[in-house]
Write a structure and sequence with these properties.
By secondary structure, the protein is mainly α. Helices cover 50% and strands 0% of the residues. The mean pLDDT is 89.
């Protein structure tokens, strides 16, 4: 494969900031509040199938 094209510093910084907003900040807020990522979710099948 050919080497990837070099990106400008602004593009890289923008991508890093977008990742931080999308992934790191929500995780950090949940972690500080003592919550898990699944605490607000409802089970797909809340009743057991026996």
């Amino acid at each position: 494969m050919p080497p990837a094209a070099r990106r400008r510093r602004g593009e890289v910084l923008g991508a890093e900031l977008a990742w931080t907003r999308r992934h790191l900040l929500p995780w950090l807020v949940r972690h500080l509040r003592g919550l898990s990522s699944g605490d607000d979710r409802v089970a797909k099948r809340p009743v057991s199938l026996k």
